[in-house]
Amino acid sequence: MAQALTFDDLQRRVEQVFARAGLAPHQGASLARVIAAGERDGCKSHGIYRIEGVLRTLKAGKVSGTALPRLLPTDGAIVRVDAAGGFSNAAFDLGLPHLADRARDLGLAALVINDCTHFAALWPEVEALTGQGLAGLVMCPSYATVAPAGGNRPLLGTNPLAFGWPRPGRDPYVFDFATSVAARGEIELHRRAGKSLPEGWAIDADGQPTTDPDAALGGAMLPFGGHKGSAISTMIELLAGVMIGDLTSPEVLDFLGTTTLAPFHGELILALSPEKFAAGRSGDPFARAEQLFEAIQGQGARLPSQRRYAARAKAMAQGVALTPAETAQLDRFLALGLDAVA
Length: 342
Hints:
Elements: E1 3-5, H1 7-20, H2 25-40, H3 51-59, E2 70-72, E3 78-82, H4 88-106, E4 108-117, H5 123-130, E5 135-139, E6 161-165, E7 173-177, H6 184-193, E8 202-203, E9 209-210, H7 213-218, E10 220-221, H8 227-242, H9 249-256, E11 264-272, H10 274-278, H11 285-298, H12 306-318, E12 320-322, H13 324-336
Parallel strand pairs: 3-4
Antiparallel strand pairs: 1-12, 2-3, 4-11, 5-6, 5-11, 6-7, 8-9, 8-10
């Protein structure tokens, strides 16, 4: 029978797992919050499934669980945080208030996080920005697991891209997607469940189309939308890798030597003030945005993240449901710490 935990209880349990594994409180709390949020929102590929990868990366010495992120001196529109080899989440938490202040002052500001391990979805960062009344655009590379359009070998990362628009008094408008057809975690979940992949998700090591998750993990995923997704993915390599002086996806794979560990790279977060951009023009930007959203929904279309918000509301009212296997896995991680992973 499934066990239901409150969001706070689940977050505490995940924090305990990370403390047992040797993470400092500021690192473990930031990680636990986004993992618990993924589980709460029904995003299983970014929920407690991710704990094992975090522990494995720690055990391999490819990330520091005690790193203290450092705000670097900058002026103008760029805020820069050195994650010091730790997870990106704690670095983002440090940089967020400074980013928000500069965006409100200048209209547009950027947070650059360097030398971090990033494993999570990007919507937690986007929602943090919309919670400040700001629009946001977030992106990062990954490691080379995606073939460019027309290619036959891994070169690009899954390279997620997320956007958020604040909606006062309502859940924000948010989208967050990999630039591959599916996130790598989705393919791994198919493998664990013994399910075939949909057509068009991946190619095998010989560059041939495959629906076998094992063959896909040994080959390459495909970009969404063919050449369009490939171009957006390349843009992310340039902006969130090359431009910020951090690793591109091929360089990440060279550094790690495997795709079984969480990727080490940088992250780019852009924050925009709708009020600043709309200043001097007629109309309230938030009211005008609502007209657009109402027109979309008026045609019977669904806004992105609506399924996630519905899952969140249900979980907050009824608890976050974990299967017996998931509960046992949490117990095992807590009992064994880093010894729970190879």
